[in-house]
Amino acid sequence: MTDKNPDDNPQEDPKGNDASWKFVDQVDLLIKAFGKELEIEPREWRTAGVDYLYRAGSVVVRDEDLPRVIRLFGGGTAHDGGISGVTQLDLPAKVPEEAPRARTDTQRFLRYADLRLGVGVVTPVHLFFVSPSVSPCPATEPEEVPAGIDPAPKGDGHADGNGVKVVVIDVGWTDAPHASWLDGVTGDPEVAFDPGTGLIRPYAGHGTFIAGVLRLIAPKTEVVVKSYFDRAGAMWEIDLAEKLTEALAESPDIISLSAGTKTRFGIPSVGLDVFIQTRLNRVNGLVLVAAAGNDGDREYFWPAASPEVVSVGALAADGESRASFSNFGTWVDVYAPGENLVNAFLTGDYECTERPNTGTIRTFDGMASWSGTSFATPLVAGLIAARMSVTGQSARQAADSLLAYSLTQSIPGVGAILRPEDALR
Fold this sequence. Notes:
- The chain is α/β, with parallel strands linked by helices.
- It folds into two domains: 110 residues, no CATH class; 244 residues, Rossmann fold (3-Layer(aba) Sandwich).
- It has nine helices and 15 strands.
- The strands form three sheets. Strands 7-8-6-10-11-12-13 form a seven-stranded parallel beta sheet.
- α7 links the parallel β10 and β11.
C-alpha cells in the first residue's frame, strides 16, 4: 500500500480560532497513537474539518459479499471480523487499473467498489472513540471544582435501580473510595497515569465519571465498567463489535456507550450494524444507550443514529436549551443534562492538551466538572435502570415509557427531554 500518514502535510488554520483548533489538537492525539495505521478524510481536515477516520489498507465486508469483493479486487486477505457475519479484508498490494483516482489506495478501492458493486457493500474500517476528536465526546477537558463540592445532578430518590445491571463500555475503571455513591462499582482497571510524567492521561477517568453520573440517578444499580477504549480513547469498529459481543456475556439489562463516529456517506457502520441486528436485537429487553456526539450538527453519528439504539443529546446548563456542542436532528431520541456535570474523578495533576489551555496544569482532588453527550448518556441509562427497579419493566419497556414521557415535555427548537427526576413520570 502507498497510503501516507494523515499528518504528512500539516496545514495552518488561517482563522487562528481556538474553537477550530480544538478538534485539531484532539485528532493529533489519535495520530500520535495510531500513526500510519490511521487515515483521515478529507486530506485538508485541519482546515475543512473531519468527515471520518479509518484504517489504512483494510475494508469491512459482510460475509455474504466477500467472494464477489475478492474477485473484484483481484485478491485480498480475509480476517475474522470479530463476530460472525462480517469480515475485515486487507487490500491487495495492487490497485486495479480501472479504479478511480484518489489520494490513497484505500480510497481507490472504496470508489471502485462503489462503482461496480454499489455504495455500502464495501466500507472503511471506521475508528470509534470516546476521546474528543472529530465528533468529540466529551466536549471539554475535565475542569477543576472547589473543594467539598457535591456531585450533581441527582435523581429524585424514589427509585434506586436495585436489581438492574448496566455495563459501561469505556476506558476502564479507577477505584474512587472518596465517592461513596460509587461503592460496589466494578470493572477493568484503567492505566490512568502516564508512567513517564506521572500526569493524568488524556481521557482517563472518563469511565469512572460516567459510572458516577449513573449512580447518582440509580444508586443501587450494579455497574460494570469495561476497559475497551484503551488506546487514546479509540478502537477500530471491528474490535468494538467483538467487545460489545463479549459484553453480552455479562448479561446486562443496559449497555451504556459514550462513544461513536461519523462514517463515509453517513451510512451505518457495517461492524456495529451486524452487532445490532444479529446480537443486540436477539436479547429480549436489552437496551443500548449511546451518545449523540458533540459536533453541534445534525449529521448521523453511529451507533446512536441506529433506530434500535436510544440516542442521547445534551442539554445546556440552564436545562432549557440544547448544549452548543450537542449533535441534533430527528435521529436523536432525547436530550438530558450534559453540561457542567460534577462527579468523581482522579486525584493528581492533568496537563491540558487543547487550545487555548494547552500546557496548563490542572490539579484534581477526586472530583471534576465535565461536559459532553458522554455524560448525558449515563444519566438516561440511570433513569431507565431506576424505572425498572420500581415498575418491573424490562429495559426496553422502561426506555419506551421514558421516551414517550419525554415527548410530552419537548422544548421547541430542542426536542424531547428528560430530567434527573423523571424516572417514574
